[in-house]
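[Meeting: bench + compute handoff]

Bench side (C.D.) handed over the final construct sequence. Compute side (W.E.) agreed to return the predicted structure before the next meeting so the bench team could plan truncations. Sequence as handed over:
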Amino acid sequence: MDNFSPGLAFDGMLASLIARNDIRLIPILSFFLAALKSGALGMERFTGVPKALVDTVIALFILLASMEGLFKFSFKINKSGSDGSVGRG
């Protein structure tokens, strides 16, 4: 059973991260990620384009999903600090 399904848990967590744990979106995103990964194998076989290109696209999805949370956190910090109570002595 070696190499039966490498990266299965990673793909599931990635779909959940991008969908923000919305149960309705997880199957759609899981199908999209599966199509990307299987398309990468065919693309590499027939055109010679490396599979790393699809890995780069998936990394961009991870960055965009995490940046949304970062911007919400940053906006929350800036909003709480702009009420005039911080920095006045």
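W.E. noted at the follow-up: The chain has a mean pLDDT of 80. C.D. will use this when planning the next construct.
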